[in-house]
TrEMBL record:
This is Aprataxin. It is an enzyme of class 3 (hydrolase). Coiled coil: none annotated. It comes from Capra hircus. A motif (Histidine triad motif) lies at residues 254-258. Its EC number is 3.6.1.71, 3.6.1.72. It is found in: Nucleus, Nucleolus; Nucleus, Nucleoplasm. DNA-binding protein involved in single-strand DNA break repair, double-strand DNA break repair and base excision repair. Resolves abortive DNA ligation intermediates formed either at base excision sites, or when DNA ligases attempt to repair non-ligatable breaks induced by reactive oxygen species. Catalyzes the release of adenylate groups covalently linked to 5'-phosphate termini, resulting in the production of 5'-phosphate termini that can be efficiently rejoined. CDD domains: aprataxin_related.
Amino acid sequence: APECVIMMRVCWLVRQDNRHQRIKLPHLETVMVGRSPETKIADKKCSRQQGNWSQDCGDYCVGVNPTSIDSVIIGKDQEVKLQPGQVLYLVNELYPYIIEFEEEAKSPGLGTHRKRKRSGNSDPTETAEPSTGLEPGSNPRQRSVPPKKEKDASAKKESLGHWSQGLKISMEDPKMQVYKDEQVVVIKDKYPKARFHWLVLPWASISSLKAVTREHLELLRHMHAVGEKVIADFAGSSKLRFRLGYHAIPSMSHVHLHVISQDFDSPCLKNKKHWNSFNTEYFLESQAVIDMVQEAGRVTVRDGMPELLKLPLRCHECQQLLPSIPQLKEHLRKHWSK
DNA sequence: GTTCTAGAAC
DNA sequence: GTTCTAGAAC
């Protein structure tokens, strides 16, 4: 039977500083956005019902009762359009949001949303899930047939649907691409661990640094140069420090260069492994990798990498030890609020 | 890679 | 009692 798939245009309200996951704006359905756990806004100046937002039929979304868009103050209960490129501030020039559109495949009769139990949460503004897989997590493909009792014996799990193959799918998706040329493509990390976090991937299929040889030297240099260009183009005015590097033992297949700002201000940074993978020798500086390939013809990694991920949390700016992730995050604020 | 949650740590 | 981590499941 032919597979029937409808493409839906979904609209997302995206917090510019990554403080929380994007909020889905369903078509012609209103979503309340304001002071709530979802938005992580605790500011009393922000109402719980700061604005009602919905996707309209066009290339914009509609809101009632926001404070300002692009610094133009909006009156109470005035309906306004928010278009791509415009910045919405929920209150007093704070809490910046933009909108993004995305195509989403939808099989009729089978909702794109998985039901998930959530303990006593009646909040209508539930965080929506991204439907396209970037760095792993979500189903890259929709089911065309409901699950049956008997297992599909031929369905080898680990081929292309497995989460570790997610980058291969994302890099091909034009909507994910921030930059591309003949050799490489750059995408935003789906779960950014800082305000800016990109991945530079070669089109050539290179499973990991273990497969890299001197033949790839120019490619590695190009990936580095492209990473620096993306920083200049998209974060040039941010004044943030960046690092470019590879994880010693990556979880995702396909060589990818991390380009990450050093604020580490992101709700997706949640545990010790996240922190230590960017702030110990687990993070292999791009330039060091290039030098090693030039000198030795391949990349070798020292023993004991998995253990590095369990090291105590230490601030990368002032070396102070912090006892927990929440306390580390609180500590980091004093380095980026300058 | 993320999510979920039991139970350790506070 | 609540916060937080870490390991299993995906």
